[in-house]
Amino acid sequence: MRKSSETPSAARPARRGPGRPRRAERDGGPSTRELILREATELFAARGPEGTSLRDIAARVGIDVSSLHHHFPAKEALYDACFERVHAAEREALAPLVADLRDAATTGGEPLAAALRALADGFVDFLEEHPHTTSLWLRRWLDPTRGAGLDEAYALPLYGEVERALLEAAQAGTVRETTPHVTVRSLVWAAHGHVTALAAASPAERERERYEFRLWVRRFLDALYGPGRTEAP
After folding, report:
1. How many independent structural domains does the chain possess?
2. pLDDT 10s digits, 153-173
């Protein structure tokens, strides 16, 4: 009688079905969903959505595509979730600084200038610590007509809070501000450009870039909103 070459089913390791927790997750490690988001964010930041497949992401996580589909039924849903995750981390880091800015808006003078500098430093710190955030957004902005909803959901609300604080300061007469959206957008783009410059710089160049960029931000903000800047330009 011919001996079967197949391993008895009782001896074979059970295949983890879609949605079944990984052993590391059961032991307190990151969830499969979190691992998918981490790897997808890195790949979308490096290649954009067109250059990234769900199969690529599943392979990086070590799962099959059907397991990935259990968490995210389509690539667009996963792409959106990556921005939501990045936005949540950014908001957590910056929300206290934005609140301080609102509190200082009607006071003006040095308290307002200090709150603005702290917020700008906090934003730059966040981007330097999470450079994939810059890459993710730059990939999105390469196609201005695609993904406008991402801006509305994960960028404009936070920027809008800063703009409203500056308008409140202007209404209180503590600063002169007529185009806060231009100011905020200019600083955001400059900060992303700064992070992009760091990526290809040598260690010595990175240190110089960090120093010079923060110095420029301080001078820019002080020129616009420093003590005594209520007069017309």
Report:
1. 2
2. 999 999 999 999 999 999 988
